[in-house]
Specification:
Layout lengths: L5 E11 L2 E5 L7 E4 L2 H22 L18 E9 H15 L1
Antiparallel strand pairs: 1-2, 1-4, 2-3
Helix pairs in contact: 1-2
């Protein structure tokens, strides 16, 4: 499988009194949480980058992104387009692995 440079998916930021829950309709199990919007954006990128790296490494099927108009939103949900530059994610993961050895 050829690894892509960029991935873009819609994240759902669900704002509750105790923080922001982050999910990706197209990426089951890709979840995170945060206290504020800036942190949510960073954590969404981190979660998606790791998720896509695992899919690539395991040879999993890369899901086709759902169009924004087709995303179902609930109360307190805000859609957010997350774009991840994968060469940087892969390099960071490799650096973390090497430092831990």
């Amino acid at each position: 499988m050829k690894k892509k440079k960029w991935y873009s998916y819609i994240a759902i930021f669900n704002h509750e009194d105790n923080g922001i829950n982050i999910s990706f309709p197209d990426l089951p199990g890709c979840l995170s949480c945060a206290d504020m919007d800036e942190e949510a954006i960073r954590k969404a990128k981190d979660a998606m980058g790791l998720y896509m790296t695992v899919l690539e490494d395991d040879g999993g099927e890369i899901p086709k992104p759902t169009a924004l108009k087709d995303i179902q939103l609930g109360k307190n949900d805000v859609p957010f387009l997350v774009e991840v530059f994968m060469p940087e994610v892969r390099a960071n993961i490799k650096d973390m692995y090497i430092k831990e050895l």
